[in-house]
Amino acid sequence: MLTRHETSAAFMAEAMASASGVPGACVVTLGPGATNVVTGVAHAYLDRSPLLAFTGQLPADRYEITTHQKLDLRGLFAPITKWQTRLTAQSAATVVDRALRLSLRPRRGPVLVEVPSDVPRQEATDTAIPSAPHRAESVVDAEAALAGGALLNASRRPLVLAGMDANDDRVVTPLRRLAESWRIPVMVGPKAKGVFREDHPLFLGTIEGLGTVKLFDFIDTCDLVLMVGFDPVEFDRGWTAAATVLHIGPLPNDDRYYPSAVELVGPVHEAIERLLAAAGPPEPTHSSDELRRFREAFRAYVAPERPGLTAQQVLAELRAALPQDALVTCDVGYNKAVSAQCWPAYRPRTFFLSNGLSSMGYGLPAALGLKLLHRDRPVSCVLGDGGFAMVMAELETAVRLELGVTVVVLADDALSQIKAGQERRGYPATGTTFGPLDYTALARAFGIEGRDVRTVADCRDAFRAAAGISRPTLIAAHVDPAGYQLE
What we know:
β15 (449-453), α18 and β16 form a beta-alpha-beta unit. This protein is of the alpha/beta class. The protein has helices at residues 6-20, 32-36, 38-46, 73-77, 92-104, 142-154, 169-182, 212-219, 268-279, 288-302, 311-321, 334-342, 363-373, 385-391, 394-400, 416-424, 439-445, 456-466, and strands at 24-28, 51-57, 83-86, 110-116, 158-162, 186-188, 203-206, 224-228, 244-249, 262-265, 327-330, 351-352, 379-384, 406-411, 449-453, 473-478. The two termini are 46 Å apart. It has a 6-stranded parallel beta sheet, with helices on both faces. It has a 6-stranded parallel beta sheet with strand order 12-11-13-14-16-15, sandwiched between helices. Helix content is 37%, strand content 16%. α1 (6-20) packs parallel to α3, α11 packs across α12 (334-342) and α11 (311-321) runs parallel beside α18.
């Protein structure tokens, strides 16, 4: 599918890979085409997504004597890919097969495949070796499971912190059984939203979202943290909690970002099952009343009342208009912070964002990729006006491909998160504000429906009207940035 920018192509391919587990692919030309795709590849690298990035390159017999658009692409992509290779007619099938396998091997990530411009005209001469069926077997050590069970038995205030490697349908049932049996509260990272229903009384919140300090304060009261499928790249701060950590994940805790007393290494769902079998009869821990009070106070804290329309209210109306299996992306900035915390997710792989790299411009192309993958499911994206302006040309892509996504722009004419940081330090707002856009006129220019909304009722009407339309809808919600400021 043709996109209007190479970075968008990588974001689309990565979102499809993240949602499906099947490696995505994007194809760009040499020179600036390759450099433009760097951001999308770096995003896939830090968010652990399988992606093949095919780039053009000068013909091998011209590379040493040509200067125009000559770049060492394998060197350029080395820090942000798992492998960098050059494809030839003699190795095409073998190279692609190896690239696919490497992209899927934990930790998953992107591979660069450089294609000299004379190669596509040549006849491929090799044949890939058929791949044998492979299933990653559990390697959870029995003694480690017993040690983990002993930690849980001895704990009085445990907590589950679930991350991206737990964002799998197979994890839902054992994770819920673990939490409910022992009355363990659950927090998630932004990449794991939906693995534990957010309307569940044991769910507390999403770390690294709006109001995350309150969640870390709660963590400080716990004596055991079950780090379930958490990758250190998901943290945006150092780990300072004094609680004992039980590491559960597909890889050992070699990063040492946090100390772990016990490590259960293997498929996350199987590791949880082993832990449950080893822990003995459950002994409920936290008081239900305490958790209910925390949930209620935290929800009120992250959704303060303000004179104008808030992003939290916009999200609430969008959530009410969509089924539980709807797919939602967000961009980066305050829109990410509020979406990560205030968007209730109910199923795995229904909420998508750029977290490790935290790249603006991700939300819209990611939503288009998801709609390509799931044309039968509603797809929406929540963007800041800064990030939207970077990629608004992709609205044409959406129109051309008949991708009926709902594009929600939280408009306040500023890079509000950076502006707020300047103001907290007593600096004048410099380089963080810009002029308004006429969003309805912009929508008409792309041949789509556009609406400005300024009240909760406006939002409700606009989101309901957007349902089921085969073309994109652009909704500009003019929000009060004071809603991002918590007291």
